[in-house]
Design a protein that fits this description.
The complex is a heterodimer. By secondary structure, chain A is mainly alpha-helical. Chain A has a single domain (2-82), classed as Non-ribosomal Peptide Synthetase Peptidyl Carrier Protein, Chain A (Orthogonal Bundle). Chain A has helices spanning 2-15, 41-55, 63-68, 72-82. Chain B has two domains: 2-386, Thiolase/Chalcone synthase (Peroxisomal Thiolase, Chain A, domain 1, 3-Layer(aba) Sandwich); 408-490 and 541-740, 3-Layer(aba) Sandwich (Peroxisomal Thiolase, Chain A, domain 1), CATH 3.40.47.10. In chain B, strand 17, helix 22 and strand 18 (675-676) form a beta-alpha-beta unit. The radius of gyration of chain B is 24 Å and the shape is globular. Classes of the chains: A mainly alpha, B alpha/beta. Chain A binds chain B through residues 16-20, 38, 40-42, 45-46, 48-49, 52-53, 61-62, and chain B through 190-192, 207, 248-251, 451-452, 455-456, 508-513, 516.
C-alpha cells in the first residue's frame, strides 16, 4: 500500500501539473479538494481519466469521484480494491 | 429564417416535429466513432449527400458545418426575398466553435505527413467556415465569426442587431452552424456530461446532454428597409442581453449569476417587465449543473410566477454553437403558431428547479418570448423575441448618455510578442530576426499569477491574462463593461493535443483540460473569471480579421452607449506543427516573412473618466469591408479625409510577392501619403492587426516614429497626429481604423 500511495502522489503531481508540490507535501489524510491541495472539478475529471488509464478503473458518474478523492489514503484503498491492471 | 437540425431539413418539417412531439435524438448513424453508447441528434444526411444536394463538385473542399450552414442560409435568404444587391449591403455574422474539425480530425495525420489533403488545412478554422457559407451565395458587405461556444449563434444575432442599430447596415443575416465531430463528442465525454439515455432537461433524474448538430440563420432588418423591399416581418427582435457568469471554465454558478444578468438585461433592453414574458426557451442542456443553475436564475428574476419554460434540446439535442439561432427559430414558430414547445422526457420534479411545459396549449396568447443560450466560460446570452412588428428594438445611439459620439479613447495598450513583452523597448531597439518563425518572448508570469492559478494554463492563456491585467492596471479600469477577444485559432496547442490523441491513441482516456482550452472563448472568459468581471463578453475567431471583429464590436457598442469601457484583446499562438501546416497553405513561410505570435490588450473608453487618465490616443474612425469593389474602397478612402501616414499590413517586402500589390493598392488609394509597416517588427499572425493598433497608439502617444516602421522607398511622415491603420489580407477583409493624437 505504501508503494501505491507514493506512486499515486507522483501521478497526481504530474497529471495536475502541481509544479511546486512534492510527494512529501501531500498529507495522506488531508482532503484533496477544497482545502488541502485546493483541487477543483476539472482536476477531479483529470484524476478519473488517470485512474482509467493507469489502473483500469472506469467511473460512470463523476459524483462517485467525490467519495474516492477524499484523501490519498481513501483513493489508494479504492484503487487497490478495484484495479484491473 | 432557415433551419436544419435532427428534427427537419427546413422550417416546415421542424414545426411538424415540434407539434407532433417527435424527437430527433437517436442512435448514432453518420459520425464514425467508437462511442455508439451515446444517443445524438444528427442531421439525417451524410456529408457526401449534402455536397450532392448543394451541387458542390467532388474534389472541392467541403465541411459538414459549412454545408449545413449553406442549407439553412439558403432557406432564410429565400424567405426574406434577399437578392444579391441586398446582400452586398448586409452584414453576415455566423457562430461556430469547431469549424472544419470534421475533416481536420480525419486528415490531421495527412496534414502533418503528406500533401494528400492540404486543401482542408485552410478550412479548419472558424472564419473559413463562415466565409464558405457566405461565399456560396455572394458577397456580403462584412463577414464576422462569433465563437463563444454554445452561445455563439445568440451572440451572432446580438452582433447583427447592434450593427443595424448603430447604422452600419440595414440588414444583417445572423445565426450559426455546428456539426457533430469526434473531437466534440470525446471532449464532452471527457467532461462526463453526456447522458447515455435520451436527455431529460429539468428532470430530477437528468444525467447530461445529448450532442446535436445543425444550423439556423435569420434575416434581421430595420422596419424601413423591410417596407422598402416590400417584405413582411415574421417576428421582432425586441431586446437582448449578454453577461459573463465569471465563475468557472465549464460549470455554471450555483445561483446562475451570469444567466440572471443576461435575462435581466434582455428584458430591460426590450422595455419589458418579467410578467410580460409568455414563454422561455431555456438553455436546458440536461446536465445536473446547468438546469439547477438556470432554474435558480429564472426563480430570481421571475419570482413566484415563472412563465412556461421548456428546453427544446430534448428534440434537437444540444446543437452547441448553432443552438442560439436554432432555438430562436423555434421561438418564432411558437409565436407564429401560438403553441408551447414541449420539454420531452420530463417526469420527475427537481427539488431545486422549475417545472417545464407538458402541454402545448398556452394559457394566454404568446406575445413576448425569451430565448436563453449559455456557453462554456459563462458566456451567457438571452434574446427577447416578440410577435408584433410595431414594437421594434428601442432606438439607441446618438443622444444616449455616454455614447461615444466623437470616438473612443485608448487608455492602455500592452503586448507580449516576439519583442520584449510589457515594454515599448521595441521603439528604440527592436530585436531583429532572420528566422521564418519565432515564438513569443515570455515575461515572468509569476509576478502576475500564482503557481496554483497558472498551473492549468497554456502559454497563450498566461500571455492573454497578463497583457489584460497589465492593461487594466495601466488604465485603472478594473472591471471594464466589456471584455472582447479576437483569436484566429484559439489555444491551438490544446487543439493539437486532443487531435493527436484521437489520431494516435484513439477515443479512450481523452483528457478534459485540452478540450476545455481548445474552445476559443476560453481566453476571454478566463480574463472575466480571474477579474470577477460580469459585463459583456465575446470572442471572435475570424482569421486575420479576428482582432478587427473584436475592435468593431467594442467601437459599435460604445457608439450605441451600451458600454463605456472595453478591454479588446488579440490573442494567438503558433506551434511548430501548425506553422508547418500554414506554410503549406502559403500564408506563412514566405521569403523575408517572420511568423510570430501575438498577445495584445487594448483598453478603450468612450470618454476619459477624469483628467488623470493617461490617454494614449483617440480612435476616431472604424470600418470593415469584406470584398469591396474599387469604388467602395475609393469612397471609404475619401470618407476618412486627410491623415499623416498609413500603417499597412505588409509582412514581406521581397521583390516578387503577392503582397507588393497590397502596397501598390494603398499607394493608389492614398497618394502622396507615407506608408509604414509593423509586421517586420512583430511578425505575422492572425491577430497581428492588434499589434498594429498597439504600435500606432504608442507612436502617437510618444510622438516618435521608430525607424523600423518606415518602408524603404516611401517618404517619412511630416507629422504624427492622425494615422490610418489598414488591414487587408489577400484582397479581402479590409479594416480601416483611424487613430489621432
Amino acid at each position: 500500500m505504501e508503494e501505491l500511495i507514493e506512486k499515486l502522489k507522483q501521478q497526481i503531481i504530474e497529471v495536475l501539473n502541481l509544479e511546486e508540490v512534492t510527494p512529501a507535501d501531500i498529507d495522506n489524510d488531508a482532503p484533496l479538494f477544497g482545502e488541502g491541495l485546493g483541487l477543483d472539478s476539472i482536476d477531479a475529471l483529470e484524476l478519473i481519466v488517470m485512474m482509467e488509464k493507469e489502473y483500469g478503473i472506469k467511473l460512470k458518474n463523476p459524483a462517485e469521484g467525490k467519495e474516492i478523492f477524499k484523501s490519498i489514503n481513501v483513493m489508494a484503498q479504492y484503487i487497490s480494491e478495484h484495479r484491473t491492471k | 429564417m432557415g433551419i436544419v437540425s435532427a428534427i427537419g431539413f427546413d422550417v416546415e418539417e421542424t414545426l411538424q416535429s415540434l407539434r407532433a412531439g417527435k424527437t430527433g435524438i437517436d442512435a448514432l448513424r453518420y459520425l464514425q466513432t467508437d462511442h455508439h453508447e451515446f444517443p445524438v441528434g444528427e442531421v439525417q444526411m451524410s456529408t457526401d449527400e449534402m455536397a450532392k444536394r448543394l451541387g458542390i463538385p467532388d474534389g472541392t473542399p467541403r465541411t459538414r458545418t459549412a454545408m449545413m450552414g449553406i442549407m439553412a442560409l439558403g432557406q432564410a435568404l429565400q424567405q426574406a426575398n434577399l437578392h444579391k444587391d441586398d446582400m452586398a449591403k448586409a452584414a453576415f455574422v455566423s457562430g461556430t466553435t469547431v469549424g472544419g474539425m470534421d475533416m481536420s480530425e480525419q486528415f490531421y495525420m495527412d496534414f502533418l505527413t503528406n500533401d494528400l489533403h492540404n486543401d482542408y488545412i485552410s478550412q479548419h478554422d472558424c472564419g473559413a467556415c463562415t466565409e464558405s457559407i457566405a461565399d456560396y451565395f455572394g458577397p456580403f458587405a462584412s463577414v464576422s465569426t462569433l465563437s463563444t461556444a454554445c452561445s455563439s449563434a445568440a451572440n451572432a444575432i446580438i452582433n447583427g442587431a447592434n450593427a443595424i442599430r448603430e447604422g452600419s447596415c440595414e440588414i444583417a443575416v445572423v445565426g450559426g452552424s455546428e456539426c457533430i465531430t469526434k473531437f466534440h463528442l470525446n471532449g464532452f465525454n471527457s467532461l462526463m456530461i453526456l447522458d447515455h439515455e435520451q436527455c431529460r432537461p429539468f428532470d430530477e433524474t437528468r444525467a447530461g446532454l445529448n450532442l446535436g448538430e445543425g444550423a439556423a440563420f435569420l434575416v434581421i432588418e430595420t422596419a424601413d428597409s423591410a417596407r422598402r423591399r416590400g417584405v413582411t416581418p415574421i417576428a421582432v427582435l425586441e431586446g437582448y442581453g449578454n453577461a459573463c457568469d465569471a465563475f468557472h471554465q465549464t460549470a455554471s454558478s450555483p445561483d446562475g449569476e451570469g444567466s440572471y444578468r443576461a435575462m435581466r438585461e434582455a428584458l430591460a433592453d426590450a422595455g419589458l417587465q418579467p410578467q410580460d414574458i409568455d414563454y422561455i426557451n431555456a438553455h436546458g442542456t440536461g446536465t445536473p449543473n446547468n438546469d439547477t443553475s438556470e432554474s435558480q436564475a429564472m426563480m430570481r428574476l421571475f419570482g413566484e410566477t415563472i412563465p412556461p419554460v421548456s428546453s427544446t434540446k430534448s428534440f434537437t439535442g444540444h446543437t452547441t454553437s448553432a443552438s442560439g439561432s436554432i432555438e430562436a427559430v423555434i421561438c418564432i414558430l411558437a409565436l407564429q403558431h401560438q403553441f408551447l414547445p414541449l420539454n420531452l422526457g420530463w417526469k420527475h420534479q427537481m427539488p431545486d428547479g422549475i417545472t417545464p411545459v407538458t402541454d402545448q396549449h398556452p394559457v394566454r396568447p404568446l406575445q413576448h418570448v425569451l430565448c436563453n443560450s449559455f456557453g462554456f466560460g459563462g458566456n451567457d446570452s438571452s434574446l427577447v423575441i416578440g410577435k408584433e412588428p410595431s414594437k421594434a428594438l428601442l432606438p439607441l445611439g446618438e443622444g444616449r448618455e455616454g455614447a461615444a459620439g466623437e470616438g473612443a479613447f485608448i487608455l492602455a495598450a500592452t503586448q507580449i510578442s516576439i519583442q520584449e513583452g510589457l515594454s515599448e523597448a521595441w521603439m528604440q531597439s527592436p530585436i531583429q530576426y532572420d528566422e521564418p518563425y519565432v515564438r513569443s518572448l515570455d515575461v515572468d508570469y509569476k509576478q502576475w499569477l500564482s503557481v496554483g492559478e497558472s498551473r492549468r494554463m497554456g502559454k497563450l492563456l498566461k500571455r492573454a491574462l497578463v497583457t489584460s491585467l497589465a492593461a487594466m492596471r495601466q488604465s485603472g479600469v478594473e472591471h471594464p463593461d466589456a471584455i472582447i477577444t479576437g483569436t484566429g485559432l484559439g489555444c491551438i496547442e490544446n487543439t493539437e493535443i486532443l487531435l493527436t490523441h484521437l489520431c494516435e491513441e484513439g477515443e479512450e482516456n481523452c483528457k478534459p483540460t485540452p478540450f476545455m482550452q481548445s474552445t476559443h472563448n476560453t481566453i476571454s472568459s478566463l480574463v472575466s473569471i480571474h477579474t470577477h468581471t460580469h459585463g459583456y463578453n465575446a470572442t471572435y475567431a475570424h482569421k486575420e480579421a479576428s482582432f478587427d471583429c473584436a475592435l468593431e464590436d467594442a467601437w459599435r457598442q460604445m457608439k450605441l452607449g451600451r458600454i463605456h469601457t472595453a478591454l479588446v484583446g488579440g490573442q494567438d499562438e503558433m506551434t511548430p506543427k501548425y506553422f508547418g501546416l500554414l506554410c503549406k497553405t502559403g500564408y506563412l513561410g514566405q521569403p523575408s516573412q517572420i511568423a510570430g505570435e501575438a498577445a495584445v490588450s487594448v483598453m478603450l473608453s468612450a470618454k476619459p473618466r477624469n483628467e488623470l487618465d493617461n490617454v494614449l490616443c483617440r480612435m476616431t474612425y472604424f470600418k470593415r469591408l469584406y470584398r469591396p469593389t474599387p469604388e467602395e474602397l475609393q469612397q471609404t478612402a475619401a470618407a476618412i479625409g486627410c491623415f499623416d501616414a498609413v500603417v499597412t499590413s505588409v509582412s514581406q517586402l521581397s521583390t516578387f510577392n503577392s503582397q507588393l500589390s497590397t502596397l501598390q493598392e494603398a499607394a493608389t488609394l492614398f497618394p502622396d501619403t507615407p506608408l509604414l509597416q509593423y509586421k517586420n517588427i512583430f511578425g505575422e499572425s492572425y491577430t497581428a492587426y492588434g499589434l498594429g493598433i498597439y504600435a500606432t497608439a504608442h507612436v502617437l502617444h510618444c510622438q516618435q516614429l521608430p525607424p523600423a516602421m518606415l518602408i524603404p522607398g516611401f517618404v517619412t511622415p511630416a507629422a504624427l497626429h492622425r494615422i490610418l491603420v489598414l488591414n487587408q489580407i489577400g484582397g479581402k477583409d479590409y479594416t480601416f481604423t483611424v487613430l489621432e493624437s
